[in-house]
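Q: Give me the 3D complex with norvaline.
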Amino acid sequence: MDKHFIHIKDLTKDEIFDLIALAKKLKSKFHNKNDFKHFHNKSLAMIFAKPSARTRISFETGFTWMGGHALFLGPNDIGIGKREAIKDIARVVSRYNDIIMARLFSHDHILELAEYSDSPVVNGLTDYNHPCQIMADILTISEHRNSLDDLHVCYVGDGNNIVHSWLQLAAQLPMKFTCVCPEGFTPDVETVELAKANGGSEIVITHDPINGVKGADVIYTDVWASMGQKDQAVEREKVFADFQVNGEMITRTGKDTLFMHCLPAERGRETTDEVMEADYSVVFDQAENRLHAQNAIMVTLTSK
Ligand code: CP
Ligand code: NVA
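A: Here is the predicted complex, encoded as structure tokens.
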């Protein structure tokens, strides 16, 4: 594996399967309350420029369970890129800490952090992508299906950071990936091209919420206005009205579909209470699997 964990496209297909297998082993140890002190006497710096529940809690809990100490550094603590240059922060923080996890606005900033850090950097979300989330998601799907062969994942909503990581996964693992989004809210063109070019996957970008979801094994959605876009929420609600994942849309797949959402969900907007609470909803499995997938990522990064 690369020195850092910044994009899914940096992983090979085998590395993705190895991470899934290790995450399953670590999950079993965690549930059985077995000791696993891989990070004894080690520390993890967690830099957050944006809010978080799952990312903060799962990284801190996971690293603590593995015997280490995790430091929370919020937006007002180190002022990354404002109080101090990113390349300076990278060299200072990596002298103190064995791993750096960062959630930042600009993707260029995490690239710069990684370039100057001596310790592995893990991407905890940028405006461009969210690779830890997609590793937890594919782990979750693998637990709910016999195999990852012939998988059709259909994402409905804004062509955002979650979609970019799904497209990068589709570049490595053969699948059908459909993004059903309103015009003007399509994912990054280069990332779509990468997914189409690399892996034998079928990639469909469509504005048709009636036909686009047909045959999907997974319907995935996310908020219509991401962090940093919340001032557009009311305006976006009108544009996205036909893209709500509700019970009727799930029925239109014509399949025993799983419902997935990275959370936090805005119930009543991109999805409904009915769907969130349905038997086919695996959103809390996804949330739990953040912890196990990230533990596997951190162990792999530090086991060379
Ligand atoms: N899914 C996710 O990353 O959640 P948080 O924003 O709460 O960390
Ligand atoms: N697209 C969302 C994901 C949150 C986990 C955001 O960036 O706010």
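A quick observation: The beta strands are 43-48, 69-73, 99-103, 121-123, 152-156, 176-180, 202-206, 218-221, 258-261.
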